[in-house]
């Protein structure tokens, strides 16, 4: 299996070089993506593939159920580097329907360490219990929770001083929430764009940014 991966890599590098002889030389000099993408680790959601982007176009961070915890140094470091140093213009949170992490959060079974990771999704469920439980089928409930989870992570990102400092400095930074449909390959815009502090869910999340 691993031998095949190396063979595929050689074939891929050869095809890219044939099309653009200087591609890897130029790519090695640095990156300047306009988008940072927070997505799920699910192997069925290959970020660059589903939006037809090439190497260097999207700065990607993935974890189970596309979470952005305020205490997760990994996600925070990715966001800071993308916003402060790469100066991206768009932050995308992309979940997907049929997400195992979201489905697990809806039950009471133990799954190990991941239970701690998806605890926040249970909170999203609790805060929207009437809406979720009014759905007809389990699939409809899970699909709605996928969307609500994405929306919460969008809010979590907008509530960071990383993003708000960028806004205070006049940077054009927008946060978007999308969901990917495994059975069609299509993205759904959840219409939760946050473009400035005026779009925060509540002003309690607003920082007084010192100059």
From TrEMBL:
It is an enzyme of class 4 (lyase). The keyword Metal-binding applies. Binds 1 zinc ion per subunit. It catalyses: hydrogencarbonate + H(+) = CO2 + H2O. Keywords: Lyase, Metal-binding, Zinc. Its cofactor is Zn(2+). Reversible hydration of carbon dioxide. This is Carbonic anhydrase. It comes from Rhizophagus irregularis.
